[in-house]
Amino acid sequence: MNRSRAYDIVAEVNEVQWRSSQAREKMVSIMGWARLAARSNDQEYRSKILLDANFLAINTKTLVSLTYVKKIMPQVDVDQMSALLELVNKQIKPQLELPNPNYDGIVSGLEELWPRIVLTTTGNLGNTQKRTADLEQKALYDNFFLAFVFAFAIVIMVTIMALVTHRSKSLYNDQVRQFALLFSHMTFTRISGLSMWMHETLSPEDRPDPALLDMARKRIDDLSVVTDWLARIAYPKFDRDNTPIVALSTILDEMVRSNVAMLRADAKATQLLVPQGQFHLMLQELLRNSKDAVDGVVNPEIIINVQIGHRWSFGRDLIISIEDNGIGMTSDQIKKATTPFFSTKGESRGHSGLGLTGCARLIQTMGGSLAIQSIKGKGTKVTLRCPLSHLPAIRWKHT
User: Fold this and answer.
1) How far apart, in Å, are the Cα atoms of 6 and each of 131, 132, 140, 371?
2) Could you tell me the sign of the dihedral formed by the alpha carbons of 200, 205, 209, 210, in that order?
3) What letter would DSSP give residue 306?
4) Which of 37, 145, 205, 279 has its CA at 20 to 30 Å from residue 159's CA atom?
5) How confident is the model at residue 397 (pLDDT cuts 50, 70, 90)?
6) For the segment 311-354, what is each residue's pLDDT rounded down to a tens digit?
């Protein structure tokens, strides 16, 4: 309240000061033009004097009419400004309407008022300025506590921002690390597969099986793709594409085409935008595990379910599950499934035991989780949950 009143007083003082200074300036201007006109008899100066006289009259009339002028100027000063207004309207302006104005008389009239006008317009503001300063000081004291609280809040906000930035960098570094872990697993399995194919199927006498050659080419393509994604994630500032972000449907369509799997998906869920490298790598690894699990099973079946679900807490999740009717796992195997270097397939088949570990850790860096349900001899279901708030964007298509 005091601060607001202080601002009002400052504005009022500035208004009076400005109009007073304008009055002095126009008086000087009129006296100057009138002296030149008296000595040169040049009628050109008449219009200049009239223009300044009209401005002086309007400005002075506004000044003495201000509702708060008497709070800033004593009555005697207001009377002096009124006398100046009367001089302009009743003597100077009528003189300028005559064929031969008495310019010396105009100068004399202004010179007579000049000393009092100077005192009026330059003094008597000290008390008002002091009153304004007192109000400002009181307002400062009244708001000191609020200022302290505000400053403390700023410090807290800066601290929180620093912690969030640090956590964000830490999560990003962890995501790169887990991506690299999963990448190393996939590289190991594909190189092992290529090595086995070269040593066991190639001979100088036999031509390579076209199907096996096609499989080898796919393994090489997989290695090229994941290597490129790893480089993009490691150096995002230099990646012009800023690590590809695609609709989930783009990844799912590719998965269904290249694997014997059925897709059951909610349309809105498939339109979510996701980081291509991370999701492609995780889904590819989980599908590969399911394909290995159903190898040799009569009527093999792999189902990919995609939907958006609600959490117990506030928010929603993208839920992707890959379910098969393969050999399944025991309860002990489920407990160890995400343990580094543990594998139910064995190293002889080219598995490092880092696949599920990499998937679990990678989805965790995105704020999500991986869950495994399995029954020995009946099949396995692996579920990925990722909060929508952790995805790069959400795009809904309107149909």
Assistant:
1) 8, 6, 11, 65
2) positive
3) E
4) 145
5) very low
6) 776 788 999 999 999 999 998 888 888 877 666 665 444 455 66
Q: How many Å apart are CA 290 and CA 356, to the nearest integer?
A: 12
DSSP 66: -
Residue 395 in any domain: the answer is: no
Residue 293 to residue 327: CA distance in whole angstroms: 6
**What per-residue confidence (pLDDT) applies to 141?**
62
The DSSP bridge partners found for residue 382 are 322, 372
Give the confidence band of 399 by pLDDT, cuts at 50, 70, 90. Answer: very low
Q: Averaged over 145-173, what is the pLDDT?
A: 70
Report the C-alpha gap between 30 and 80 in whole angstroms: 18
What domain range is 104 assigned to?
2-142
Statement to judge: residues 199 and 97 lie in one domain: no
Using alpha carbons, select from 306, 342, 297 the residue that is nearest to residue 324.
297
Q: What is the pTM of this model?
A: 0.47
Phi-psi region of 86 (alpha: psi -120 to 50; beta: other; left: phi over 0): alpha
- Of the candidates 27, 26, 17, the one whose C-alpha atom is nearest the C-alpha of residue 121 is 17
Comparing CA positions, the residue from 224, 348, 349 lying closest to residue 292 is: 349
3-state secondary structure string across 175-188: HHHHHHHHHHHHHH
For residue 42, pLDDT over 90 is answered with no
Q: Which sign, positive or negative, has the C-alpha torsion 186, 190, 195, 200?
A: positive
With a CB cutoff of 8 Å and minimum separation 6, the contacts of 334 are 372, 374
Residue 93 CB coordination number (10 Å): 17
The answer to whether position 147 is within a domain reads no
Q: Do 363 and 338 form a contact (C-beta atoms < 8 A)?
A: no
Q: In sequence order, which residues have a C-beta less than 8 Å from that of residue 19 and are 6 or more positions away? A: 59, 60, 62, 63
Asked whether residue 300 is domain-assigned, the answer is yes
For residue 319, tell me if it sits in a domain. yes
